[in-house]
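Exam revision sheet. Question 4 asks you to relate a sequence to its structure. Input first:
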Amino acid sequence: MNTAAQKRSRIFGTVRDDRGDPIELANVRIQAQGVRTVTNLKGEYSLYCSSRDTVVVIYSLIGYETRRRKLNSPSDSVRIDIILPSYGQTMLEEATVKGQGVQTGTTQKIKPTDSKLMPSTTGNAVEEIIATQAGVSTHNELSSQYNVRGGAFEENCVYLNGIEVYRPMLIRSGQQEGLSIINSDMVESIGFSSGGFEARYGDRMSSVLDIIYKRPEKFEATAAASMLGANGYIGWGNKHVSLMTSIRYKTTRHLLGTTDTNGEYKPNFLDYQAVLSWRPNQRWSLDMMGNISDNHYNFKPQDRETKFGTLYDAKSFKVYFDGQEKDNFKTLFGAATLTRHFNPQTFLALQASSFATQEQETYDIQGEYWLNEATTQEQLGVGTYMEHARNRLKANVFNLGLRFRTQVKDHTLQAGVDWRREHIRENAREWEMRDSMGYSLPAEPDRLMLIYSQRSQNELTANRLEAYTQDAWRFKTDIGLFNLTYGLRLAHWDWNKETLLSPRLSLGLLPSFSNNWTFRFATGFYYQAPFYKELRDTTNTAGIFSVILNKGIKSQRSIHFVLGSDYTFRMLGRPFRFTTEIYYKALSNLIPYSIDNVRIVYYGKNLSKGYATGIDFKLFGEFVPGTDSWITFSLMRTKEKLNGIWLPRPTDQRYNLSLYFTDYFPGTDRWRLTLKAAFADGLPFGPPHTSRERHTFRAPAYKRVDIGMSYRLWGDQKQNAQRTWGRAVKNVWLGLDAFNIMDIKNVNSYYWVTDITNTQYAVPNYLTGRQINLRLSIDF
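Answer key, structure tokens:
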């Protein structure tokens, strides 16, 4: 018997990246022996193999270069510590771009650098990147709001450095939206889950966006300007202290000038943000963040002409305006986190945050309109309308919480508790008068009637208590490596005395039969705890709508089932990943709503149940070396049963195709092109102020292509070495964006015109047309 062939050797060690950080889930295998393992959280591995004359150990992971070590007649125990450089490592705007690792949970990691030079109409680059992901869609380039798998805008939860953030509540159109609190210059990591997320995330029915800001270790700065605004960022730090500060200005005046409505647009949005981190020693750290946002939208419309219809039934809608709109949204946000670090894997953190908003929406706009046949000029309707609003809202949200995390062998334990106090006060009054052919609508012989009138004077003070606990357990069997995450979330709200329990579970598998496949499954209960908008119950008394707060309302519930897989492969010598996810969401205790632009109007009562189901595909990879690109395709159906009738939900988008593509010109890295494209099914709609049963129409599909071309004027290392002032400048980029390059007229919403016979015509409100934007950015 050959005793040498029976001898076994132990090979162990660590796998780290080129920065010295441990790499988790790296593959380690012995060539031609079928022996393999993966590294743990600390990058450690250990395996046994048959000791032959020659043993070849292979280390690999998608996104990193493969390394081989050849051992000649290894001894009983051999330690090998290996470093895996990131594959195709490229310096882009002084940020290291690395391939993405293996995704075993429902949260995917997105590179912040992907949003650096892309064409952006909102100035909110992170949200625009999210809108191109699988299962995510948007129908308004002026808004940073997005829908995820049939959910409304407000079903998406956003965290910034572990703290939930809020948006202004009175905003009804994309034109009024300013800059989001997320500053892309400060972002270090982006995590996004489109369903089946962990218990540590809050109560939303659709998605989670988890943003972590960076801690700069040296001086860095960025300055940028374009026709849509300007921004400046400065960061500095060392091993104990880091500071980031930024100011941003945005205006959409040039974009709004491409719409059908002519007038004097004065949108001005200003944002200031500062982040301070202090770590005096290894045991303690203090992180503080502050944000001030002051958004103004002033508009004096003059006239509008819209042509719509078909080739054989074309119509023309002409309006002359008088009046103006003035809106102001001021928000303040502050947060502080004090952390006690017991060891690298264990910490206890105390968090405190406060959000305050003061919102005013005021307008008096009168319009005289003519609705004609476009070819014969036959008059279909002549009339006048007047819209009036005096809406004011103040809100304060204070949160105090604790976070704990530790690691025990293969288990990562997390727990947290939050107490939140909300105070909201609203005083709103709005109405609309409509006159057609000399008759006020609705027509009454003895009095003047308004077609719509609503008033709301309410105040809310409430407390919420939330807690969660969860465990992430990694274990290995003959089938493969499993990643099991399970947890429970508890929530109580004293407004309606409701207590909720949300169990959640996800399971990921890296199978033994292949390093190219990963599988995952997730399920759980997700509640949409009512905030102020959902509580507003509207009653009609003599034609006047009054708003009261419904204390009997319950949280909307969604039960998620998500099954997904990733297949990684190499094509043309570059890494790619193909992702598929199938999902089903069982919805109950739903509060029906309708959407007008980006404004959501709820019924204020739990009246329906429903479902959302679909499948998402995503192909991600380096179509061009050193750049990330992806294409996504989604099919979906979402319905709800209201008054015994199954109806499509307002977010029922049956298909969606998104493309994000980046490219460099051959032979140079100075020229860069970024292309964004969207092709999404239209959403259901119907006449305003009517029941959902009448929303039987569907808007045209949303189609848009934006292209950004960037040229690096400065960035050559040889020039930097020769010029003193050049040493401080890392990159200078000159850019040219072509928004809506195909000049497609996308429909945002509809204005409904009614003649004396009560025939209604839906006049489309088109979004922005083709527009050119020049920009300049400098990195220090």
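Marking note for examiners. Confidence is low (pLDDT under 50) at residues 1-5, 88-100, 717-725.
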